[in-house]
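Following up on my earlier message about magnesium ion. Here are the inputs again, as you asked, copied directly from the submission form:
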Amino acid sequence: MRGPTRAVVLVGGEGTRLRPLTETIPKPLVPLVDRPFLSHVLDHLAAHGVREVLLSSSYLEASFGAFVESRRGLLPEVRWVAEETPLGTGGAVANAARGLDESFFVLNGDILTDLDLTALAARHRETGAVATIALAPVEDARPYGLVSLDEEGRVLEFREKPAEPVPGLVNAGTYVLEPEAVRGVPAGRAVSIEREVFPALIGRGLRLTGFPSAAYWVDVGTPEKYLQATFDALEGRIRGLDYAAPYLHPQARVSLRAHLGRWVVVGPGARVEARALVEDSVLLEGAAVDEGAVVRESILGPGARVGPGARVEGTVLAEGATVPRGATCTGARVSAGRALEA
Ligand code: GDD
Ligand code: MG
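Thanks, got it. Here's what our run produced:
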């Protein structure tokens, strides 16, 4: 039997922890190596038979237009759904899935994974659940939704953002839902699927199934995690992704006298000048590292610039941000269009 052919991908968060990059780029559209993050998510869905994806966001909605346009003619087909004010994860799913009468996938739009979605859907059918939640093992569940299961894989409890640093199985942000799972979600206010919908379904005694998996899985919601996911992709740790390392876009311009580590991405139109050193970093479209500058463990947003001889470490430069000649910074965050302040 075939799995769901439709998916809702949640892309409407503000990407707070990835600021200032997300001041101008929604988190799901930040490129990962060679294409927008969301393209990786959609390609993964296509590989598991999904033909239509529903997307909605009230945050930076306009910037999704070009992305939707660029996917024209590709599978899955993208359908944009209006979300005037942020509806929360549960509200957004209920809103997008209105009218669906078959089971469907729901994915957080910031997860890089090679999870077997076909196996997830098969488990959902076998157990007759109203919702099946993919689970990943972690050492510290605090940033996630902690899930406890009985021996048969039934979800006993869903605890979003536990206060204690406990290890366990957490919500991997990938579900198969029956339409009835979100049917009762109130319209007109933000509703969290994690804090409200899942606990309410469990409270009603409905069957929720947990699907633990050891697949590659990372939430790219922080600069550290975004860089880790990028380096893992360069290392070939994600099934289906295969890149040369460092990854230099065909339109990147790297001086033959520059030094690049292996964990480096240089995007289209980005440049690295002579005697510069770049390690463990991502340079997005049109970013520049001037002569003799040093860049480590940093993300340079579109058109951002590190001046000659400057040293930048653990830093995130938003679109068009600059670090002046000779300046030094560690752990800095520079807003769009701004210069690093001394
Ligand atoms: N359309 C829409 N509207 N999307 C939203 C909204 C909204 O109001 N709020 C958040 N989203 C999207 C975000 O863009 C993201 O793709 C997804 O919903 C999850 O939001 P995050 O802000 O990234 O949540 P999180 O990472 O703290 O926690 C979630 O993901 C964890 C796994 O990485 C939860 O689902 C946890 O339970 C889970 O463990
Ligand atoms: Mg997240």
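One observation from looking it over: The longest helix spans residues 223-234. Hope that helps, and feel free to reply on this thread.
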